[in-house]
Description:
The complex is a heterodimer of chains A (249) and B (266). By secondary structure, chain A is an alpha/beta fold. In chain A, 37% of the residues lie in helices and 27% in strands. In chain A, strands 6-7-8-3-9-10 form a 6-stranded mixed beta sheet, with helices on both faces. In chain A, helix 3 crosses helix 4 and helix 3 packs parallel to helix 5 (143-155). The mean pLDDT of chain A is 91. By secondary structure, chain B is mostly helical. Chain B is globular, with a radius of gyration of 20 Å. At the A-B interface, helix 2 and helix 3 of A face helix 1 and helix 4 of B.
Amino acid sequence: MQTELIQIQHLSKQYRIGKRVIKALQDISLDIYEAEIVGLLGVNGAGKTTLSSIIATLHPPTSGNVLYQGQSIYNDINDYRYIIGFCPQKTNLNRDLTIDQILYFAGSYYCMPKKLILERREELIAQFQLQEYRTEKPDILSGGYQHRVLIARALMHRPKLLILDEPTVGLDPHIRRNLWEIIRGLKEYGVSILLTTHYLDEADFLSDRICILDKGKIKLIDTPQNLKTAYNKSTLEDVFIKLMKEEVA
Amino acid sequence: MISSKRFTRYWHIFWQLFQTDLLVFWPQLWDASLNIIVWLSSLLILSAYVFPLLGIMKTFGMFTAFALIASESYWRMWPTTFEFISDLDGERSIDYLLVLPIPSWLIFVENIALYIFKSITFGCITFPWVLFLIWNELDWHFFSWPKFILMFLAISLFTGCFFILLSSIVQNRKNLHKIGFRIIFPLWFFGASQFPWQVIYNKISPKFAYVLLANPWVYAMEGMHAATMGQQRFLPFWICLGAVLTVSFLFGSVGIARLIRRLDTI
């Protein structure tokens, strides 16, 4: 029996741009289980990044709630922040620090004892194969390695939920593959992952369940296999295209 | 009411953020100090040794010196705001900070604290240099160390809060340029940095002088000059100090509230 880690209940988000009101999310309800990878799919503007940034507590919802262990995260948001790790779309690393320093401070911001920080840093440096670059600053790293550092930074404090917003965008295929293995490996450690992606093969390969968003609403949630069977398609890409065609029709 | 355990935790994170910024700041110190020294020396040599030859009063060098020591933090607002806005337009490293287990307003308070720390550091570097440059022109008769230090700290706080307010107002890098020319420059030039407020009141127009009192930089400069050159020709020191602290609190709280709204954070 799977245990719920996060429960998202009737979440809505509206933005105001000038006089226009944009409904980015409408009545989203979704559970994320322990050690599960949920892939968030959707076209541009579907609300993927908005949803992941609300769960990451970067933005507040307009209405609805997010529960952790049955309690609203907004009752004590700073306690909830200890269990999440957030990798935004942009590689927003501190460009003036070395990789070692970035990881060290990432641990210290979560009040980890120094000994534990140093141990954890060694662990992550090895896991993400960053040994060669640990004394370098992010600017000299390739896009793939910068993403590795970003994920390693988010994992320093051993979060229970890792939120990855398009972690492989713009990367070469072999580097993407490499990151996929790393992400899959995290599940073995019991980390739940909310993965926002544009790449259907990525979602297919990594996700236990797929959540397809369209115009701020959940269109479907199911396992990749069930989706393919239900729509009688061999790939998730075909399912997605069929769904989008249905939408247009 | 915040529990002591939580307070300790917040303080720890705040201190770690400050440590991170210091780690970035120290390697830049030499370069930044050199810039300030060149800028300050050029203005000071003209004010203390050239302008008096053109008929300007002899104490103008000393007057300018203390205005410049305090103005360093004022002129740093522009590049600091530029950096902040560039981050919002670009990689948004602030997003990482805003999901740390600390209230978001403390992230902005840390920015102000760092700003004050930098002002003090640059002040410690520039002060002896200024003394060296105009040693013969200095009159220590009216100089008050406690008042000077108090006013210097208040000005550093004011400029730190002003930077946060500017960051909350300026929409993008292009707009900052406009704000620089339309707000930052006039506030400084009409802010009693190069003349005592009394000169406007007595020699030009009392009405115009009263209008200038709406400019907070007037209190900063008058207070600084009252602390270093005596009370006689300047606005009362304690009123200036009170005004600078009040405006700092106002700018800081409005700036933080606006930034939280602008970044749509929690």
